[in-house]
Amino acid sequence: MKMSNRVITLPVLLPFYFVASMSKQELHSGIGAIFDKNEDEDVSSAFHYRLSKSPLKTSTLKQGPVKSVNLTSVTHTVDMEDSYDVGSSICELMQNGIVTVYGSHTMATNDVIKSYTDTFQLPFISSNVAINYSAISSSLSLPSSQLPVQGFQMFVRPLYAKALLDLIRHYAWKDLWYIFDSEEGLERLQQLLDCLSDNNYPVRTHIYRVHDANEAFGTLQRLDSRKEESKRVLLDLPTKDCEKVLQMQNKETKGMLHHYFIVGLGISEIKLDAFNHGGMNVSGFRIVGPNNGTVKNFIFGWSNATKGNLKKLPYEAALAADAATVVQLSLERLIIQPSSNYQSKEELLRSLNKTEPIDCDVDPVKTWKYGHSIMKSMLQVEFGGLTGQVKFDAHGLRRDYKMDVLEVSMSRGLARIGTWFSEQGLVIQPADKIRPIKGNNTIANRTRIVTSILTAPYLMKRAQPADGTQLTGNDRYEGYCADLTKMIADFVGFDYIIKPVNDTKYGQKGENDNSWNGMVGELIRREADLAIAPLTITADREQVIDFSKPFMSLGISIMIKRPLKEQPGVFSFMNPLSYEIWMCVIFAYIGVSVVLFLVSRFSPFEWHIEDHTDGPSVTNNFTIFNSLWFSLGAFMQQGCDIEPRSVSGRIVGSVWWFFTLIIISSYTANLAAFLTVERMQSPIESAEDLAKQTEIKYGMVHAGSTMEFFKRSTIPVYERMWAFMTTTEPSVFVASNEKGVDRVRTEKYAFLIESTTNDYINQVPPCDTMKVGSNLDSKGYGVGTPLGSDLRDRITLAVLELSENEELAKLEKTWWYEKSKCPQDSSILKKQEATSSLELPNVAGIFYILIGGLSLALIMATCEFLYKSKVEARRRKTTFSNAVKSKARLSITGMPERQTTSYTYAPTAQLISLDGWSETNTHTQV
Asked: In what residue span(s) does the Ionotropic glutamate receptor L-glutamate and glycine-binding domain sit (predicted)?
């Protein structure tokens, strides 16, 4: 029995061992790629870049038996119109051992590719025109048993004849002029005609085949010479040829009457800015969304990898890249999917790692063993690609996709008017929701002038190097805006020159005319291409120039001179409680003592009999002085020798003890903070404080957004402040931030300034200014451009990208805090919190009270001594000096003075009395 168990176990363990050994290696698989020699190089570049950035090296492979997979492309460039050349290329690729083939087929070679791939069961994925073989098969009217089986072809370019039909219905077109230049265009035309027929939508179609853009333009001219009516022209030409035809037609008066539809998917790649203000309408589909995060990341990585300056992704390149992703994810799916057949899994991994070559000339035909498995896996791939959601049906065609409908119309420019969904159909946006697509203009190859303003830390003149090197160009400046300009220029792709504004103004509209000064005026007059400075976005400025998204958020703040640190007072130990509380405590102390004295007088339980030398007497311990002493002892939490005996007296004592417990606990809890933290007393804490007083003047920079804010404000506090500022002499307005800061440091002056500038100035020597209160408003700095500039939207995209990557936050931290030469408030606070020792000024008051109390006690003792001596001198009928000497001798030696004439014997209790002598003589004198 044990023998049989071993025999059964061995075949099971061996595959596990092999798979485990495979997991220590990398898997290398070959991918065939066939490109047309006339094809744009961007298609090949995008395909290879996506293949090199294989997602197979992600953590998902940890679930499978392979550490990583390296996909190597075996590339052939051929004439895709030559069937023999294409067939030979496929055979060569199979002999090199590949798992699948990518190519941009043509209609001339489509049958050859289908024949080879079906025969050898080799998966083929194309980015060219999609062909619905299932529709072709169904049109043959054959029995289902005789229909061709599903082939090995897939198409990442979607079928969109139905989308064309929906758009034709939307425009209610009844006549079409279809111009094409290739067999692929003819195939798309046939698909459109079939779709029109299937949906019973009658349209008269005029078909024209041309060879190039010039012939297409000539055809349109001939059409215009016959009739002057507007036409619906469908241009099925390469994107560049479409652009050329439109540019030539734009010069013709009759050409502006037509509505042109770009049948391809590259309308967003055409330079349509020349048509923004004409009468020509141009429409088309867009499949590559510019705001797609996947597209942005791909363009950024692809641009860096190719050392290029790519700004747009051609849709053919996007389709090729998505095809590469389909291959990658399908292999990943095969590798990580669980399998109960370990032998098959082992063979699959061996085949993928080193694909066995296939010879086209072998008879009988040898097929690719895992072609079916790979094809099935490719059909099941789903992901968000560069061309939207990528999913396939059982026939290798795209499904569940969408395309934007773009249109250029008179005086609006390019705009997205709707979206077509493969499942839902065409959805047109309401007219009031349609917004022009900015940034369609091309960036000219010229140096841009960047206007700015010299104000720290935004833009400053760089100090000359120690070696005496002369700085030139943009190297003369440094600061936040200088660095931001470089980042934006690198992202957008343009050269620039920084030029400080001539009049040192930000930009304000003239009171007597509509002219603007400052940086805004330079943009309006086209003296500068963009303004990168602390330029606030306002409604007035937005009417005359364009702004990007804010690169910095801020508000108006108040700057004052930093007050000197308040030295602790002699009686700073009293700070934990207000003076009102201290007075209430004193009155409570006196009141409790008086109440205790009264209740003790009226309560019979406080009276008791005591024996004295002259006989028993009824006494009450709570005299007024003893009551004060009892209350003081309880307040100091020390107690005394007497305690109340009556219930009423104990009630008074109990509530007083409770009162003192809370007061002392609260005092102790706050004492440490008040004695260890040195606080600064600011004369102004808010805008309301400024408005309520006139001693401290306040103002702002003349001709700026802050001034406009107060001028237009309807808030009562700000209106009152504006009235004060406009009537104060001398003027409280300054020409620049630097002059405003100087007034803060030398006068009783509060400066209303942007919070970011306020924060920076507080970090530079002499570190004597500070920000108080919260911001008065909320606004932002934006990059300004002239109206209609081709830079505006690209700059906005750059600002958003820099913000998302936290580059703007790092830049602000660098110029505001890392270069600071002043101690940070947080570090000061931490230092204060870490300090546990007190200094003499903090507790000097309690020493003064101690010394004062001791001095008062000595004075009182002296007064008592002299008073008792005087009484004793009168009683004994002796001189005052003798009485003083007698008392002094008693105080020093503790022995009373003996009289020569008589001797009095007194008990011990009397000898240790306060004065040392008995008031009465109860014994015989000798």
From this structure: 457-525
Does 706 carry a binding-site annotation? yes
Residue 752 has what pLDDT? 93
Please count the residues of the chain. Answer: 926
CA distance 37 to 42: 12
Q: Is 801 annotated as a binding residue?
A: no
Which of 452, 449, 450, 447 has the alpha carbon at shortest distance from 501?
452
The reported pLDDT for the residue numbered 835 is 47
15 is in an annotated binding site: no
Segment 705-714 long-range contacts (CB within 8 Å, at least 24 positions apart): 705/506, 705/536, 705/538, 705/779, 706/556, 706/752, 706/753, 706/754, 707/508, 707/733, 708/508, 708/538, 708/540, 709/556, 709/776, 709/777, 710/752
How many CB atoms sit inside 10 A of residue 199's CB? Answer: 11
**Amino acid identity for residue 453 in this structure:** I
Q: Per-domain residue ranges for the chain?
A: 2-156+312-390, 161-296+402-433, 448-555+782-818, 572-676, 695-777, 862-911
Q: β-strands 153-155, 100-103: how paired?
A: unpaired
Residue 705 known to bind ligand: yes
Mean pLDDT by 10 residues, the chain (926 residues): 34 37 61 88 89 59 60 87 89 87 87 89 88 52 41 89 91 90 89 90 91 90 74 89 85 68 87 60 86 82 77 86 90 72 61 76 83 89 90 90 83 77 88 62 66 92 86 91 93 88 88 84 90 91 91 92 73 79 88 85 76 76 86 83 82 85 84 63 83 91 85 91 92 90 93 90 88 90 88 86 90 87 59 52 66 75 83 85 81 62 47 44 40
Contact 419, 403 (CB under 8 A): yes
Q: Quote the CA–CA distance of 15 and 581 in Å, as a whole number.
A: 87
DSSP letters along 495-542, please? -EEEEE-TT-----B-SSSS-B-HHHHHHHTTS-SEE-SS-B--HHHH
Q: Is 314 annotated as a binding residue?
A: no
CATH architecture of 161-296+402-433: 3-Layer(aba) Sandwich (3.40)
- DSSP labels, 158-175: PP-HHHHHHHHHHHT--E
* β-pair type (552-554, 779-781): antiparallel
**645 marked among binding-site residues:** no
Secondary structure (DSSP) of 406-473:
EEEETTTEEEEEEEEETTTEEEEPPGGG--B-TT-SPPPSSPEEEEE--BTTTBEEPPPPTT-PPP-G
pLDDT, position 763: 87
SS3 state of residue 100: strand
Two domains, one topology: 2-156+312-390 and 161-296+402-433: yes
Phi first, then psi, for residue 531 (nearest 5°) are -120, 115
Output DSSP code: residue 816. Answer: I
Write down the pTM of the prediction: 0.50
Q: Report residue 874: phi and psi, to 5°.
A: -70, -40
Answer for the pair 870, 878: CB distance below 8 angstroms, yes or no.
Answer: no
Q: Which architecture, in CATH terms, is 572-676?
A: Orthogonal Bundle (1.10)
Q: Which residues contact 437 (CB under 8 A, 6 or more apart)?
A: 268, 406, 413, 414, 415, 416
Q: Which of 885, 275, 778 is nearest to 896 (CA)?
A: 885
SS3 for 677? coil
Q: What is the pLDDT of residue 634?
A: 84
Q: What is the pLDDT of residue 137?
A: 42
The reported pLDDT for the residue numbered 853 is 67
Specify the CATH architecture of the domain 448-555+782-818: 3-Layer(aba) Sandwich (3.40)
Give pLDDT, residue 877. 82
Beta strands in 51-105 (DSSP E): 68-78, 100-103
The token pair that represents 29 in the structure block: 């698989």
> Are 681 and 483 a contacting pair, CB within 8 Å?
no
Q: Which residues contact 129 (CB under 8 A, 6 or more apart)?
A: 107, 155, 157, 184, 187, 188
- Return the axis-axis angle of helices 624-635 and 579-602, rounded to nearest 10°: 130
Report strand pairing: 607-612 vs 769-772.
unpaired
